[in-house]
Design brief:
The complex is a heterodimer of chains A (213) and B (407).
Chain A (H helix, E strand, L loop, with lengths): L1 E6 L3 H12 L5 E7 L2 H11 L3 E5 L6 H12 L4 E6 L4 H10 L3 E4 L4 H12 L4 E2 L1 H12 L8 H4 L3 H11 L4 H7 L4 H17 L3 H9 L4
Parallel strand pairs in A: 1-2, 1-3, 3-4, 4-5, 5-6
Chain B lengths: L1 H21 L3 E2 L9 H9 L3 H13 L3 H12 L1 E2 L10 H22 L5 H18 L3 H6 L8 H26 L3 H60 L4 H20 L2 H4 L4 H16 L3 E6 L6 H20 L5 E8 L2 E8 L15 H12 L3 E6 L5 E8 L10
Parallel strand pairs in B: 1-2, 3-4
Antiparallel strand pairs in B: 4-5, 5-7, 6-7
Helix pairs in contact in B: 2-3, 3-4, 4-5, 6-8, 8-9, 9-10, 12-13, 13-14
Classes of the chains: A alpha/beta (213), B alpha/beta (407).
């Protein structure tokens, strides 16, 4: 049973997600919901959920502000970003702020439930598109990267990301690479860690370059 | 503790108010010259207002006593609120204030607290100038350039008062220090002009800037409204006229894709000159034709040449096959350009097939995919297990474009 908190400023979407997850009552306990940034920050601190399902675009600083504020005091609460936006800028910003994963709102409820459980277990959740973003962002490896360990992906990590980008669920990625699901999860988590800790400001620049409205 | 204290406060406040009320003296809010003190006193004493006013003026001439008394009464009384009139008595009040000020000045002079005529004249004039100009309210106008403009009369009066004050000041300095009086006069004049017109110019500049910003914002809003009208609203209207849920989903997907590319798409690569954009177009078309979601993820990009065009056609064929035959819920397409080649994977989690069982007359895969890519130095590989989905891997030589360096 995972203690879950849902933040979304769209009432319709919020109630939809709530209803879908409430149908899996034996897996999730929705301890609270919030529709704006300030409410989310105070209520999350009060209810102490294990996982927060977080919308990205909200008035008053968006999901980014919620992550930054809550992790300051409660670093053990995990965030899964959920958004209609798949703009690289938003995705990379959320991940670098500390979200453990990023899924788009078109995700099926079964996949969403899996993603939440994975985040709860401490693993990272990469959608195909996010995997594509990460590959793209790290593809232009710069020779003067400050910390090669953090600023490059290993060959194995790239393989795993490529398979995720090709649409394979973790189980099939593991089967294709003849490794265990646990190992796939380890690779993905280490990519996430690199994404969050990498010193390359180019990551952010790359992301914002992708958003040329 | 706290409640007791606040109760005591309330009692104290009430007693002050009571004492004020005990006087039964109110300042008049209509038919008044200054603050209505004389009028109120006349009402209370039952004598004509003119006498009371005259008494104040006479008393002011006597060492300013009238002025002091007037201010004291002003502070001690309330205005009668119920008959407040909206008519402005501003000029009269200003004159009255001046009289009170003069009375105060004379009172201080009579008492012997007096630093000298010249000092009082200079500071008094400067103070008046600043006071009149302060109606300019330029500090707040710095932040709100749309605020009301001050009257020309007020600006003029303030400027004259300031300049004359500064003039006297400057003359007294130049007499003392025998500096070039012309230079000082120029400096003082420039200062005065700056004080008077500076804030106004700044305000005007800001007003212009904010007008421009507002106009740009409106244009953007209009452009967005036009776009939403042409696309989203049309689609929503169309969906309301559809009974077929599958068609509804397709419409929604198409619209979503279009809106996304408009919102987040990068314009440089949206032109059909690029592989990613060409694949995007293909995916959107097939999604529409076959009512099946096509998830496209691209990494890197390349310019469209003959080779890349073959790759796009082959990918198109593969996606169509998956959409037609796989019975999967969606098709995943992943394209990557790196290390001198472009790879496209078209995958579905559908029924799959046995490659040896393909009849010879169904030549789509062999002709349009394998042969076509073979001609341009690429190739294709099929990986399919019955019941466990299909993946077709296509590749061709390509030179990666650095997306970031493109305009």
């Amino acid at each position: 049973m995972i203690r879950l908190f849902v933040v979304d400023d769209h009432a319709l979407f919020l109630s939809g997600v709530k209803a879908e997850l409430a149908a899996m009552a034996e897996r999730f306990d929705i301890v609270g919901t919030a529709a704006d940034v300030d409410d989310a920050i105070t209520s999350i601190r009060e209810t102490m959920p294990e996982v927060v399902l977080l919308d990205v675009h909200m008035p008053g600083g968006g999901g980014l502000a919620v992550i930054q504020n809550v992790t300051e005091t409660h670093p053990d609460i995990r965030f899964l970003a959920l958004s209609v936006s798949d703009a690289a800028e938003d995705v990379i910003a959320m991940i670098r702020a500390g979200a453990r994963g990023y899924v788009t709102k078109s995700i099926s409820s079964e996949d969403l439930a899996d993603a939440i459980e994975r985040v709860k277990a401490g693993d990272a959740v990469f959608s195909p598109r996010l995997a594509g973003f990460v590959l793209d962002a790290f593809a232009h490896g710069l020779p003067e990267a400050a910390d090669p360990e953090l600023d490059q992906l290993t060959a194995r990590e790239k393989e795993v990301l490529r398979l995720i980008a090709r649409g394979y669920p973790y189980k099939q990625v593991a089967r294709r690479l003849s490794i265990s699901v646990k190992t796939v999860e380890t690779h993905v988590s280490s990519v996430l860690r690199k994404l969050q800790l990498s010193s390359r400001y180019e990551l952010t620049r790359w992301a914002s370059d992708r958003r040329m409205i | 503790m706290l409640p007791g204290r606040s109760a005591a406060n309330i009692v104290a406040m009430a007693s002050v108010a009571d004492r004020r009320l005990d006087l039964d003296l109110f300042r008049r809010s209509s038919d008044r010259v200054l603050a209505g003190v004389a009028g109120g006193l006349a009402d209370r004493l039952g004598v004509p207002t003119g006498y009371v006013r005259a008494a104040f003026v006479v008393a002011t001439a006597l060492w300013g006593l009238g002025a002091v008394f007037y201010v004291a009464l002003w502070m001690a009384t309330f205005e009668r609120v119920e008959d407040r009139s909206p008519t402005s008595v501003e000029p009269q009040q200003a004159i009255g204030l001046g009289v009170i000020f003069l009375g105060g000045v004379f009172a201080f002079r009579g008492l012997g607290w007096w630093p000298g005529d010249r000092v009082v004249l200079i500071t008094g004039t400067l103070a008046f100038g600043v006071a009149v100009l302060s109606d300019f309210d330029w500090v707040s106008r710095l932040f709100d350039p749309t605020g009301a403009r001050p009257s020309k009369l007020r600006v003029g009066a303030g400027a004259i008062l300031l300049l004359s004050g500064l003039g006297v000041f400057g003359r007294s300095i130049s007499q003392i220090q025998t500096l070039g009086s012309a230079a000082i006069a120029v400096i003082i004049t420039v200062l005065g002009i700056g004080l008077v017109f500076g804030p106004w110019l700044v305000g005007m500049g800001r007003a212009l800037g904010s007008e421009r910003r507002e106009r740009i914002r409106q244009e953007e809003r209009a452009e967005m409204a036009a776009h939403l009208h042409d696309s989203v609203l049309q689609t929503l209207a169309l969906m309301q006229r559809t009974d077929d849920p599958k068609r509804m989903v397709t419409l929604a997907r198409q619209q979503e894709r279009e809106l996304r590319s408009w919102l987040y798409g990068d314009r440089a690569s949206r032109s059909e000159e690029r592989l990613a954009a060409a694949l995007e177009t293909v995916a959107a078309r097939i999604e529409g034709d076959f009512s099946i979601p096509v998830e496209l993820v691209t990494v890197g990009d390349t310019a469209i040449d003959e080779v890349a065009l073959s790759l796009v056609s082959a990918a198109s064929e593969a996606i169509v096959n998956a959409a037609k035959h796989s019975q999967a819920a969606e098709v995943s397409v992943y394209a990557e350009v790196a290390d001198g080649r472009a790879d496209v994977w078209v995958a579905d989690r559908g029924v799959g097939f046995d490659q040896t069982s393909i009849p010879d007359d169904r030549r789509g895969l062999r002709d349009s995919i394998v042969a076509r890519l073979g001609r341009v130095g690429g190739g294709a590989a099929v990986d399919s297990t019955p019941g466990d989905g299909t993946e077709i891997h296509l590749w061709a030589p390509a030179t990666a474009l650095d997306v970031r360096s493109q305009p």
